[in-house]
């Protein structure tokens, strides 16, 4: 299957681009073909397994289980991989056409005009640009704690204030409390849905009503990095409808999570053109050429998408079933990770797990005896659960 795809890539006439000397169909240089064969050989090697890491090592023991960074352990789209291979000989050229094609593909996915799309190298830059564009001394951003802090940290660095509202007892957003924290100096509300690190989502109708009632001059930033994995997915939960209505909403999405391309760095923001112009002042460069073609291919690869969502939901349930059996408290997970109460200070817990080569998430103040664990493969999570049980028993928590 992969061999056939490689041959197809080599034989496929390359589209004309903005090259001064257009290549004729089938006129790839010998070195380009050699490089494609070299990559194909690598891809066909048994160790490669499409980005999935073997838990067993050759030495008879097992390798490390890395479940600390919310990366996709199931790999990424083979169609994306093929598009990268096809593009490799041409990365001496800028991504003119490819970045336009990416914007068009995103605009078709989101059903918004292309003027609403701001492509970036991962979605992190959308968060950072928004922080820089809105932060001013005396102005504040309202968010939740624990929550994802990339935007609010930058907001503070650029002279603004951060107002953090605690979550409710179900570790979900307390929207009335968030609303109460908004004052005359608030310029933005940043909410990540599902929330990182808790993984909880907010009722979409309640969130829509909350955003519609925001005072003029307060922009809603909704970070939907993990939303494809929530019950009902984007269709049931996304705030994209409010952007389409022309509301003052910035939405961020990424190819790092469900699409499994964290290392490639592709993400985007969706917002009205006047908001986009405000953020774009701080744009430092969009996704690279390989990222552009891989993201477009990923959006076409519906089979991979479905598989990725199913894998996440299946393994997530396997983890929560075991936590239920052990009587461990956790927040209802709707993203690519589970946030659980260990009752052990997180730094100590990390060290104990690391001694068994299981890397778990960092501290998320103020919940310092809870732990965030990214969903890995079934095999990796099996290892995690058995080490977890041992460590928890040794600490007298089970
Ligand atoms: C909630 C949230 N938003 C944004 C990001 C940024 O990811 P990336 O820059 O890879 O798109 C992350 C990364 O973990 C995240 O958890």
Describe it:
- The chain is of the alpha/beta class and 398 residues long.
- The protein has two domains: 96-300, Type I PLP-dependent aspartate aminotransferase-like (Major domain) (Aspartate Aminotransferase, domain 2, 3-Layer(aba) Sandwich), CATH 3.40.640.10; 303-394, Aspartate Aminotransferase, domain 1 (Alpha-Beta Complex), CATH 3.90.1150.
- Helices cover 42% and strands 13% of the residues.
- The protein contains 15 helices and eleven strands.
- The protein has a seven-stranded mixed sheet, sandwiched between helices. A two-stranded parallel ribbon has the order 1-10.
- Strand 3 (140-145), helix 6 (150-157) and strand 4 (161-166) form a beta-alpha-beta unit.
- The protein is globular.
- It starts with a helix and ends with a helix.
- The model is unreliable at 1-7 and 9-27 (pLDDT under 50).
- Bound molecules: pyridoxal-5'-phosphate.
- Pyridoxal-5'-phosphate binds next to loops.
């Amino acid at each position: 299957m992969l061999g056939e795809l490689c041959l197809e890539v080599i034989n496929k006439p390359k589209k004309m681009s903005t090259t001064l000397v257009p290549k004729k169909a089938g006129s790839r240089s010998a070195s380009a073909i050699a490089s494609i064969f070299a990559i194909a050989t690598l891809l066909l090697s048994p160790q490669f397994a499409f980005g999935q890491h073997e838990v067993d090592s050759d030495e008879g023991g097992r390798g490390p289980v890395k479940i600390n960074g919310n990366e996709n352990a199931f790999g990424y789209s083979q169609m994306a991989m093929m598009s990268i291979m096809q593009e490799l000989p041409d990365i001496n050229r800028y991504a003119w056409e490819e970045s336009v094609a990416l914007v068009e593909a995103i605009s078709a996915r989101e059903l918004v005009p292309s003027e609403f799309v701001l492509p970036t190298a991962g979605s992190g830059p959308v968060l950072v640009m928004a922080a820089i564009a809105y932060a001013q001394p005396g102005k504040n951003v309202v968010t939740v704690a624990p929550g994802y802090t990339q935007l609010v940290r930058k907001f503070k660095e650029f002279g603004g204030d951060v107002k953090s509202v605690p979550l409710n007892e179900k570790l979900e957003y307390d929207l009335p409390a968030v609303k109460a924290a908004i004052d005359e100096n608030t310029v933005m509300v940043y909410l990540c849905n599902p929330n990182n690190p808790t993984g909880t989502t907010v009722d979409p109708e309640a969130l829509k009503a909350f955003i519609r009632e925001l005072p003029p001059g307060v922009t809603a930033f909704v970070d939907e990095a993990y939303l494809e994995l929530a019950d009902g997915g984007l269709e049931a939960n996304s705030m994209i409808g409010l952007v389409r209505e022309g509301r003052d909403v910035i939405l961020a999405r990424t190819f790092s999570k469900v699409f499994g391309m964290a290392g490639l760095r592709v993400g985007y923001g969706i917002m009205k053109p006047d908001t986009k112009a405000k953020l774009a002042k701080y744009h430092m460069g969009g996704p690279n050429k390989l990222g552009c073609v891989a993201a477009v291919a990923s959006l076409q690869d519906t089979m991979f998408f479905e598989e990725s969502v199913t894998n996440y939901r299946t393994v997530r349930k396997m983890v929560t079933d075991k936590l239920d059996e052990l009587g461990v408290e956790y927040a209802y997970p709707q993203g690519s990770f589970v946030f659980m109460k260990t009752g052990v200070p997180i730094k100590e817990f990390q060290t104990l797990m690391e001694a068994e080569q299981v890397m778990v998430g960092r501290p998320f103040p103020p919940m310092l005896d809870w732990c965030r664990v990214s969903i890995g493969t079934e095999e990796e999570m099996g290892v995690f659960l058995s080490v977890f049980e041992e460590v928890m028993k040794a600490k007298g928590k089970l």
